[in-house]
Design a protein that fits this description.
The radius of gyration is 14 Å and the shape is elongated. The protein is built from 5 helices and no strands. The longest helix is centred in the middle third of the chain and has 23 residues. 78% of the residues lie in helices and 0% in strands. With 107 residues, it is mainly alpha-helical.
Amino acid sequence: MRFYISFFWFLVIAVLHAIPGQDLDSLHLDDFFQLDKLVHVIIFLIGVVLSSGPAQKRYPVQWKLIVVFFYLFYGLFLEILQGLFFQGRFADLLDWTADAIGVFLGL
């Protein structure tokens, strides 16, 4: 069950990264989260926490390394996609840095 929850969160992160920039303005996310970077930290922290249990069961020795590398590359991949394909979005190295901070805090 934890695997399905972590996979669902994996998809939630992708959807949040794919929302067009102009739609974010209408959602008024700043009312709930004062800092965009904090949002990145939190969603990746949650992703790591949710994925750690299933990864630990499947890869008992290397699970930390696998989870960290997966989420670091996932965050980088999503930033690249934002820069290349997602309308109204752009790649931001500081967003990826916030993702990485969330990964390590979640670990």
